[in-house]
Specification:
The relative contact order is 0.17. It is built from 5 helices and 26 strands. It is mostly beta strands. Strand 12 and strand 13 (147-152) form a beta hairpin. Helices cover 10% and strands 33% of the residues. The protein has helices spanning 12-15, 243-250, 264-277, 309-312, 318-321; strands at 26-30, 36-39, 49-55, 60-62, 75-77, 84-86, 94-99, 102-107, 112-114, 123-125, 132-136, 139-144, 147-152, 160-164, 173-178, 186-187, 199-204, 209-215, 220-224, 228-229, 239-240, 258-260, 284-287, 303-304, 307-308, 315-317.
């Protein structure tokens, strides 16, 4: 059989710190994305964030994905357990942001919502509209122009979420997207800790090969992997040293394309080293996902110049980044 084509992977595996003894075959795992929405049970000094608008008795959320929000049946069924909703519901969510005098409420479809005095309806627009948000007697109250956002559960009048001029409909609750600390990446020694959706790399330390999805006609091509840790550890007999200097020691072929991910300080000095070796910025890619918050282009926190990391990236070439403001 022919020897597989050797390729260098200057990527995430170089930035991992391996603190356990080597196994015949190892699995590296990373945390999958998940969404946990927790009920707001007290007044908030800052209401900023991403929320589901919920009618709890019916286990329904307002459908923020709609372009026409004021319609009968603007709802999605969910499961509520112990004050939490778990699942991929960001496409139905609403983003609350501060504005003078109160808060704006924007749907995932990009519409700002408000009420109209004396009417039962939702007004939508492309610019922020004022809402006030209060919490009393165990309930959230979202009010706009003398109307209150509620749920109409009476089928004869069209079940829907809407701003109503009188408070005789069903109250809504807010469930906020919580940030769950990610599980650490690294060598998996107990396969029972793996979860559905985990992304893994199957690695053979003895031959410094990672399993590739590329099939060469006989078997899957192995990808060459080099490992280093930044300080000596008991049981580790591999390379010790920081990534930037290790990359220079490896002397990668200047015809290669380089992928870098890891801590920003590591990326910065690794790029400097690659430039010294003769790599062009157009040959080097990196990822900027650490700046991402809502991940759907609504909160604006990942904005760099005219780019949104979540929508235009998160992977960028360095010559693209060099044209942007130095905010990353």
């Amino acid at each position: 059989m022919k020897t597989p084509v050797r390729t260098r992977l200057l990527s995430a595996l170089l930035s991992l710190v391996m603190l356990v003894s080597l196994l015949p075959v190892s699995v590296f795992a990373a945390e999958p994305a998940s969404g946990t929405w927790e009920k707001v049970t007290e007044a908030q000094e800052d209401w900023s964030g991403q929320y589901l608008i919920v009618y709890e008795k019916g286990s329904l959320i307002m459908d923020g994905s709609l372009s026409a929000l004021d319609k009968e049946g603007n709802k999605v069924d969910v499961t509520i357990t112990d004050g939490k909703i778990v699942g991929d519901y960001a496409k139905y969510a609403f983003t609350i942001a501060p504005m003078t005098g109160g808060w704006s409420v924007q749907s995932a479809s990009g519409k700002y919502i408000s009420g109209k005095s004396g009417s039962n309806k939702i007004i939508t627009g492309s610019t922020p509209e004022l809402n006030t948000i209060t919490f009393a007697d165990g309930n959230v109250k979202i009010a706009s122009n003398n109307t209150t956002l509620q749920y109409n559960a009476a089928a004869t009048n069209g079940t829907r979420f809407r701003y109503y001029k009188s408070e005789n409909q069903q109250p809504v609750a807010l469930y906020k997207l919580s940030t769950v600390p990610a599980r650490e990446s690294g060598i998996v020694t107990d396969l029972t800790t793996l979860q559905n959706g985990d992304k893994v790399v199957v690695f053979n330390p003895a031959n410094k090969k990672a399993l590739s999805s590329v099939y060469n006609g006989f078997y899957n091509t192995g990808v060459d992997v080099e490992l280093t840790i930044d300080r000596p550890q008991e049981g580790w007999d591999g390379h010790v040293g920081f990534i930037p200097s290790f990359v220079e020691e490896l002397k990668p072929d200047l015809s290669r394309t380089v992928l870098i991910c890891g801590p920003p300080i590591m990326i910065k000095f690794t790029l400097d080293g690659l430039k010294k070796m003769g790599f062009q910025e157009s040959q080097v890619y990196t990822t900027m996902e650490l700046r991402m918050k809502c991940a759907i282009g609504k909160c604006g926190r990942c904005n760099i110049g005219n780019k949104y990391v979540c929508k235009d990236g998160p992977v960028f070439r360095f010559d693209e980044l060099s044209t942007l403001p130095n905010e990353y």
